[in-house]
Amino acid sequence: MCWLALAALCLCACSSSSQLQKRRAMHSIESHQTAPQRAFVYKDDVYIRYIYEQTPFYFVASTTADEKNVTGYSLLKPRRASDTDKYAAAFPVAIVGKEWGELVKEVIVSLLPPNPGEGRILFVHTYEAMLYRRADGSADLTDLASAPADVRIIGKVERAEFDRLLFEALKRQIESSGTHYTRFLLRLDRIPLTPFMYVDIEQGLMTPLQLPPYYELEKEMGQLGFSTTFLWSFVVKSHLFGVIKAPFTSSFRLFSLAASSLYTALPPPTKDLDSVPPLNTSGEEMDLDQFNAWLDKNITRQNYKASVKLLIDGEEFFPHFMLAAQRAQHSIFTRVYIFSTDPYGLKMADLLKERADDGIDVRVLTDELNTVLNSAKEPALNYPADFVMPKSIKSYIRKDSSAKARTHYNTWATFDHTKVYLIDRELAYTGGMNIGEEYRYTWHDMMVALRGPVVGRLVKNFYEAWSFNGWGGDFAAAYRKLFSRKQRAGNKEEPGMIDVRLLYTKPSQAEIFHAQLEAIKRAKRRIYIQNAYFSDDRIVAELIQARGRGVDVRVILPGENDVGIMDANNQIMANKLWQNGVRVYFYKGMSHIKAAIYDGWAVVGSANFDKMSLFVNQEMSLGISDPAFVSELEERLFEKDFAQSDEMTQKREVGWASFVVGALTNQM
Predict the structure, then answer these.
(1) What are the residue boundaries of the structural domains of the chain, listed by start?
(2) 75-99 pLDDT, tens per residue?
(3) Global model pTM greater than 0.85
(4) 346 vs 351: CA distance, rounded Å
């Protein structure tokens, strides 16, 4: 019975023959070899009727926002035809085929730049593309990763805007044709497991419809290989080779880890406020000159001039970095915690490999343990049936390429959590983003682009880290630090550049923690913080005391957290803060942003508010007191996220197990 196979598409198969039958049936639907008979809407669901091998059945998907996943897709679920045919007299849906492609082409042509050599970036679903005119005036549309480097970008059209243009074009076409349909099923091609887009003109809906996966992820490394590689990386590489090549750093890290574990295990008691005072309305803020003088004396004098550009979310950062990488003339250096082996990660890796083959000095430095762990992690989004996950990003980058790749060994379970991307030693990016599908498409995150003298310092940092993570270890890093030549003279101060202070977390060097703790103590008007992992008791205690001084304290936490144990701790911290008058917000989805504003001083970077980021890992953040930058960060990030998040209005239910978790997360 063909229907029995189709009804079980989302269930475990009983035999290899039924699995094969399911795969064939699903493939025929995904590839449009089997066309739908009709479609209609009943209540909040869209129904699509098929006949496969003489057996009728339906796929059903919800059109409501609550049933869609984070990318806005709605899942198609199989349904028996005899149970569903009775709804067929409901609202009909027109099925549109090739004419949809013509409509898309019409919209794209309308966006074509007017002059040769000009291009416009387009975001279409999960694809980045460039629409441009060649030198002879002819038009071309290509994947952004393959776009010519000499095209001058005159603008971009984001996904929401592109969808709006398509929607308006479809609406005009309907009005001119005189059709009575207002609901459409539009055929899609080349988007994995997504055969149709559902459009409702009256409701203003455009929802991609997604089939359940019918094929398994193929990996170059199996479970046995993963277990062996994990042990080899953590035990042998990190705790044998790592100690041999870096004896001084390894000893220092062990001492620092022990000291920070004791420090965080014995936090001062958090005192609740007797009463929550009204907010300070005088407008008075902390004295920035005095605070910067304190930073100079107690933290670091590492202040550099820079131009700073905010890049919020993957749609802003990754195309910016991709275009810069395509235009690189000398070098591309990437120092990143996670470089995923999902389809988007491999797309970025392919771009780096191509540039290396062009003669560009390409170097990738990533975390050893996370390189291994990500070889076992499935992609965040649907992947093509022919996708094969490589055993590691390091081997993938090195394979058939002159690109160089190294990993940071995790001696004593410490990590290099820094994210710094460098182009031609003149342009730098830093912030919270790793490379992978989550960061590009589904997570809320932020980077900043930097130019100017600060880039020279970041290049020097990269070279030292690169040397340290080679076989020379401590000795190579020391030689690089002492005898390396000065960086490119091109990173000169220019008019309009602002002061940027580099703050670090290194073994026994908790600059990011101490600087922000002091800023909390000095703040008089406002403290805005957004962070994914919030487990430091001292930070929480000082935030409560700041609220007791009348400071407007607000904290944004992720509504969906990728680390369950940290999410449980976030709930405990949220209750503590909320009970003491702090306004707590939960972002709708996963927010990975690490940013804060303390009156007129802002901090952005890679560090979480947990023990590992504040005391143990290698981290880097930027301290900036430029009024224009602080104002932009407040407007573009915090004010927008306050409005789009759910504000806490009552105490969260927390079980006893969460308090045990809270004690554990003090050491994470």
Answers:
(1) 2-98+166-210, 102-161, 223-245+314-443+453-483, 498-665
(2) 999 888 887 888 877 889 988 877 7
(3) yes
(4) 9
